[in-house]
Amino acid sequence: SLSCSGPTPSRRETNARDAIWPPSMATPLRLAALLLVLVAAFASAARADLVVSRADRKVDLTSHIVRVLTSLKVENAGSEPVSKVLLAFPNIQAKNLAAIRAFGTEGKVKGLSSVLPIEVVEPSGVPPELTFFSASLHKPLQKGKILHLDVLTVFTHFLQPFPEEITQADSQLVVFQDSSHYLSPYPVKVQTLSIRLPGGRVESYTKYGNTKLVDSELKYGPYEDVPPFSYNPIIVHFENNNPFAVAKELIREIEISHWGNVQITEHYNIVHGGARLKGEFSRLDYQSRPYARGVSSFRHLIARLPARAHSIYYRDEIGNISTSHLWSDSKKVLLLFISFVMAKFPNKSATHVC
C-alpha cells in the first residue's frame, strides 16, 4: 500500500503440434493457420491506392511488456488524395494491445513528426480475424507524395511461459509468436524485422531465408515485393527471467481536504505473471543462493511519485515492508524503492501491497 499527500497444416501435423505445445499455445497456432487461409482469400480486398515502400519493425522482448516500433514509408500511388492509413492486427494480438500511437510527417526526407489520431474501424470486405485501426492524417496525402509513419504498439500478457510450471531452480522460458512479414492491407516493397531479446539462451526460433541471430538480436529479412495481408508465422522460444509483476487489481482512493491537501492511497493486488512454481518453495535456498534458486522471481517494486509528494507510507498484507529507499532523480521525481528481502514473490505467488 502506498499513500502520499500531493501454409495450413494437415490434421496429422496439427495433432502432432498439439502434443508438443500446451493447449494455451496450440490454440493460437491453429488460429494463425486459419488466418493464413483467410488473408489469402481476402488479399483482393486490399486497397490499391497506397503502397508501403519500406517497412521496418523493431520488437523489444527484454521485459514482460512487448513493445513494437513500426516505421513505414507510405506512398500514394493512386489518383485521389488519401486522408487515412489502415493498420491491421490479428485478433489474437489485438486482444492484448495495451497502447497504440502513431506519428507522421510528409515529405521525401523524414522530418519532425506529429501525433496522428487513431481509432478502431471496421472496413468492408476484410478478414473477420483481423482488427483494424485507422490513423487520420492532418492533411490528405496527394498523388505521388510520401508519408513517413511511425507506429508504436505496446502489448501485455503477450509472452507465454513454456513450460507453464518450473521448479525454484529453473530459469523461466517464454514463447513469442508473430509474423516475419508485416501484416498490411497494402503491398510492401521492402521490409525487415528485428527482435531484441533479453539475453540468455535461445531454445529455438523459426528459420526462413534471410534469418540471422546475432548476440541478443534476431533479424528477419529483408523481404521484397510482399503482397497485402501476407502472414508468415514465427515462434521464438527464449529465456526471460525479468520480473513478470502483474497488478490483478488496483484501487485508488483520493481524498481532498478543505485546506487543499490531496491524499492518495493505492491498493495493489500483485501476482507473478510468469511460470507457476512447481513443487515446494525453500526460503533457505532462496536466501542463500537467490540468483540460482529463484532467478525468475522478483525482489522489489518501484513506484514513481510526483516531485511534491510527502508523508509517504507503505505496507503489505502482513503489515510491513522489509527495506525501502526514497530519493529523487534529476527530474525532481521521487522514486520509492521497496525491497522484499524475504522474497514475498516466489513464482506465481500473490500479495496485497498498499
From TrEMBL:
Pathway(s) the chain acts in: Protein modification; protein glycosylation
Chief location bin: endoplasmic reticulum
Endoplasmic reticulum found in the keyword field: yes
Gene Ontology annotations for the cellular component aspect, listed alphabetically: oligosaccharyltransferase complex
One of the GO BP terms on file: protein N-linked glycosylation via asparagine
Keywords: Endoplasmic reticulum, Membrane, Signal, Transmembrane, Transmembrane helix
Membrane-topology descriptor: Single-pass type I membrane protein
Family label: Belongs to the OST1 family.
PANTHER family: DOLICHYL-DIPHOSPHOOLIGOSACCHARIDE--PROTEIN GLYCOSYLTRANSFERASE SUBUNIT 1, RIBOPHORIN I
Function: Subunit of the oligosaccharyl transferase (OST) complex that catalyzes the initial transfer of a defined glycan (Glc(3)Man(9)GlcNAc(2) in eukaryotes) from the lipid carrier dolichol-pyrophosphate to an asparagine residue within an Asn-X-Ser/Thr consensus motif in nascent polypeptide chains, the first step in protein N-glycosylation. N-glycosylation occurs cotranslationally and the complex associates with the Sec61 complex at the channel-forming translocon complex that mediates protein translocation across the endoplasmic reticulum (ER). All subunits are required for a maximal enzyme activity.
UniProt name for this protein: Dolichyl-diphosphooligosaccharide--protein glycosyltransferase subunit 1
Source organism (scientific name): Aegilops tauschii subsp. strangulata
